[in-house]
Amino acid sequence: DAGVIQSPRHEVTEMGQEVTLRCKPISGHDYLFWYRQTMMRGLELLIYFNNNVPIDDSGMPEDRFSAKMPNASFSTLKIQPSEPRDSAVYFCASRHSWGILNTEAFFGQGTRLTVV
Amino acid sequence: DQQVKQNSPSLSVQEGRISILNCDYTNSMFDYFLWYKKYPAEGPTFLISISSIKDKNEDGRFTVFLNKSAKHLSLHIVPSQPGDSAVYFCAASRYYTGANSKLTFGKGITLSVRP
After folding, report:
1. Facing residue for A101 by CB, picked from B41, B96, B105
2. For a 10 Å CB count at each end of chain A, is N or C smaller?
3. Residues of B with CB below 8 A from A102's CB?
């Protein structure tokens, strides 16, 4: 398996533009997480899905952020409009559950977003 | 409100010595704990985990200890090697699936192992 695949690896955009980050989880994994890493706050959970359904989006900073998971192999995180304070590394991770037990999550390589 | 706390931002140890990385949590519902290692420009990679039914889990040079009463866990690396230099994240979750299966991370500790 190729692991969790994120695209693009780097994104530089101007303030006010729409940004879309993409993620392909590991096949068979039923949980998908979006995290944001900053120096100040470390790894923050933005939203997670179970079987393509959003379960907890309490970490989404504001209405400018939205996430979708139209099927088990694809998810997007969209920022519209983007602001300089959104600059961070965004990670996608996936995990599966062994019956009723949770397991470790596997991360993609991240998307480094710079909003100028 | 940080539910998983790694209060020391950095640690420096000599090669061959023990590295001890600490983590505290506040949410008593957490019963599954994980450590991740992260190199620059890469995603975090899973290192070792422990569920609350144990107080110790060992994997080669890495051992995680869990003290449930103190809501504290630690990662021991013995012996430390220069390749261990990275950021280490502590994470917590529920062991059983269902409500609140999210994985909550601390801010990370930067470990530097000096040759």
Report:
1. B96
2. N
3. 32, 93-97, 101
Question: Residues 6 or more apart from A10 whose CB is under 8 A from it?
Answer: A111, A112, A114
Q: Are strands A53-56 and A10-13 parallel, antiparallel or unpaired?
A: unpaired
Question: CB distance B46–A104 less than 8 Å?
Answer: yes
The count of C-alpha atoms lying within 13 angstroms of the C-alpha of B91, restricted to the half-sphere facing its C-beta, is 31
- Long-range (24+ apart) CB contacts under 8 A made by B49-52 are B49/A104, B51/B95, B52/B95
Measured at the CA of B39, the angle between CA A7 and CA A9, to 5 degrees, comes to: 15
pLDDT tens for the 116 residues of chain A, in order: 689 999 999 999 999 999 999 999 999 999 999 999 988 888 999 999 999 999 999 999 889 999 999 999 999 999 999 999 999 999 999 998 776 777 788 999 999 999 99
Contacts of residue A106 in chain B, CB cutoff 8 Å? 46
Best residue in A37, A43, A60 for a mutation probing chain B (most B CBs within 10 Å): A43
| Residue A39, Cβ density class (10 Å: 0-12 exposed, 13-18 middle, ≥19 buried) | exposed
B108 interfacial to chain A (CB closer than 8 Å): yes
